[in-house]
Records
---
Amino acid sequence: MTLESVTPEAAAELRIPPLATGGVPGLGHGWKLARDPLGFLSRLRDDGDVVRLRLGPKTVYAVTTPELTGALALSTDYKIGGPLWESLEGLLGKQGVATTNGPLHQRQRRAIQPAFRLEAIPAHGPIMAEEAHALVERWRSGETIDVTAEAFRVAVRVSCRCLMRGTYMDERAERICAALATLFSGMYQRMVVPLGPLYRLPVPANLEFNRALADLHLLVDEIVADRRASGQKPDDLLTALLEAKDENGEPIGEQEIHDQVIAILTPGSETVGSMLMSLLLVLTEHPDQADKIRDEVKAVVGDRPVAFEDVRNLTHTANLIVETMRLHPAVWILTRRAVTETELGGYRIPAGADVVYSPYAIQRDPRSYARHLEFDPDRWLPGRHKEVPKYAMSPFSVGNRKCPSDHFSMAELTLLMAAVASAYRFEQVPGSDARPRIGITLRPRRLLVRALPR
């Protein structure tokens, strides 16, 4: 397998990827992506290592093997782009670290990376622990817990308090949660069914989407304005952005600051909130795993409350999180765009072509995992995880697009799970719907649980 730019002469000798089965006249494969995206993407490997999809009039290339997805993510022949990122630009903007490429992305990455470096994370530990124990206290009432609201609420609060050092009002957190729920659902539809101008028609779904988008952008402006008005300069990511300089030594523009704050708040809150929902779902489906977390916390911590300093010793809890990420990845679909004509797995990829791949499909492939649908945290024990092919499990991606907050997010999720699973057992209640909700991220549709004190 090779992946490199090719000369016109070499390109003429390359194969054209096969067309995926199941296309519908007019809509191509967009209909199947909209109706059963997880099943459709999981079956694509049967059609080939690289296959062509038709989304309306557009041809998109799908990569289905771990080796090729790793090569794709590491290659300079591809950039962030394609239908996923185009659908996200209305939310994340074009000047934030999530959507930029080239020198601008490198400068922005250097600006935000210090906040997420491994040695900086312990400073966030007390806030993470405080929010984790606040969940435990809030759930003592015995009332039914709407996990969607609670998961996103704690994810937003941790992001705001750690990265922008402000105890923002719960009302703001609720606004973020409500806006993101609407936006990420609508953006997925816009990605797989690109109807262009029809999404500008004043119908209820479009109006709701536009209201949510406007409210989120207004909220970000409020956060930036509040910080400036306070005159405070805590050592956090927002201060770093407000004092950042561009390539000419000038302060970065207001739009870039705005888009960077969106990039801080939105992807982190959405992915962590989605993962927390899936983790609590796992605890309802595998109560023995909740018991193992409780026993591990008891052995490591004793009778005191779990703290950030305990995280590194909670190995089973961390393995359970990784296994949940394997079977229920929040980021389940990704796209790239070819910047030049190139070769991928012996197939020709034209310049400007969009390439899609699914971590969900890769991480559930029986060719990569024994007992591929079985929930088994022990598969990540030292020695055993070497059985997994390279790039068959990359929940935070690889290369220069690797998530900068990987260690931050793992510490946050480990601490949250240790606190709640050592205090409660969980059971679903009537009205709960654990089926996957398909949006830009993946999570249970509506998870309602009862916390049973241990």
---
Amino acid sequence: MKRLFFITCCLLTFVSIKAQWGFGIKGGIASTTQRLDDHWNSKSKLGLLAGGLITYGLGENIDLQGELYYANRGHKTDIWLGLDASQSSDWYFTYHYLCLPVMLKYFPVKEGFYVAAGPHLGYLLDYKNDIKNWPSNEPREKIDWESECNRIDFGLSASLGAILNNGIFIDARYNLGLTDAIKDRKSKNRGFELSVGYLF
């Protein structure tokens, strides 16, 4: 009888702990730009994101969520390939980040819709810049652009989302960068993310 009671207590404890934790995956798209306080005309560019997440229930309506995912961010601007303004093209600046946001999620009702906010930290994995329609017979000046970038990107995130009964969720997020992406230059990342995922 004591053994049965002990096993029952262990099972109840395991179920309780398991109910507090959740794991998931997500993927989506991002529309990002940079706030540049100089003469550059920064436009938004599209990128992809994908990764995983873990949640912990702090209360009946509050979860703490940590994420680790890859995000393709950056911006684009116009560049003129000749004397004629009609020969302008897009100059793409692409940042490949490993992102670690920590979000506090609040559910106005016990299940379903939620609002979330928290800090995010990004680590720069790689950086590229490409000019669309650059003439193949004209060499480009070699510049060590990546050494001009800051490795760490810090900011704040806020999102709205919904979780369905089957574990599928959708999340719409805005990221507000607080640190400069490029050294010695005001260049803060901004952008929206739309992702879908699944909670196990």
---
Amino acid sequence: MKNHTPKQVDWNKQMADTINALTLIADENNIPRDTVAEALKDAIIKSYTKEYPETIVEVDIDIDNKRLSIHQLFKVVEPNDELNDYAEITITEAQKVDPKLQVGDFYKKVIPLQELSKLSLGMHLAQMFKHNVTNQSNKQVFTQWKPRIGEVVYAEVEKVDAKSGVATVNLESTFGFVGRQETIPGEILIPGQKYNFYIKDVKEQTKGWPIILSRADSGLVKYLLTLNIPEIQEKIIEIKDIARVAGFKTKLSVMSHQVSVEPAGTIIGPRGSRIKNIQEQIHNEHIEVIEYVDDFKQYIVNVCSPAEILGFAIKEPTTPEERREITLVARSDKLALLIGKRGTNVRLISEMLKANIEINTVEEAHEANLQYQRVDPKTLRQQTFNRAYKKYHVGGDVLSQYNRATPHSGKGTDVPPKSSVQQHVNAVKKSKDSIMQDFKDINKEDLLKELMDADTTKTISDNIDESNNEDY
């Protein structure tokens, strides 16, 4: 009859193999070996104390020589009736083993490695090691990616969680994630497809992926503008301010460093071709371009356009922590355009001006006795029309020579003789035909854009005929 004696396990060899395996994993993941040693030590201590809660355990690991020793610690005490056999030992018993021990010292009792077979060490070891690997990996990602905040990466969407809406993005060496609030409303990110993502933040954390990506940040639009507009790359045109409500509108102000380059029109492009190309990359979001001016009061009017304001009051901050407070005054029938859908416009205006914005109607401003600086939008529109006319009209205005006072004006100007009346009529007709031909040669879309920038709700004739003071 065969003797079925249990096979003896070489625990020293088994533990050496375990340490070796963990060391190899650590080396592959660029994790310091001390981290591996701490992970293994913590796992053993937690496993042992879970099985024997009152015990005190000390673990020593020599990671390079693949050696491990475990000791249970007993505090040396005077003999007493309430001795804790799991954590205390009398001075008499302790000195039988080591005569040098005194009361208050710790007596170390070796725990054989085979005792580990009774513990749920494998589960705790796996958990602790996974935690340490993730922690160390995130520290490395933080160090590598933190300086890249503000950049844009072109990367593939790995997956999108149907419940939370969080998209996981493959960044090759690691992963980033896009929360629902960082997506463009209405846009569906498709796994397997690549998109531009703005690196919004890199967090120092111990779980999850620390890289936060965004499709909703204004930095993405600024990047796309720079990428697609050579004049911005060459620093001929500068983006001064930009604000965005993703899915609705992006508003930006620009200035040109060359007199011959008109900034807004250059960015928009012929028939809007340049701006359309950018809009297609952000789910056809509306992009509004205005001209930047150094005069802050004039800049307020520009930022509010195409909405009309009648005036504004500025309250400067008293401390560095405070923001400017600007009260905009508008007619009640113009409030909807000024505020915008779901408050979009007023949010953009607030970001562009870096100020808290309050909106009053004329009646509210009067009741509050608000002292505000008045703005005449009609005059501004007429100025825009005049600039556009001068820009696109070829030659001088030949009709000006016939803009003469009548005898009834009191200036004593003579009426031209009858013999020259027909000549005048022919000249006027010829001048009119010449002007009409000039306007036929105009790039009508460019002219229309300039006029629309001045006012999107009224015709030119309305602007000219209305009284400038009717609102006051």
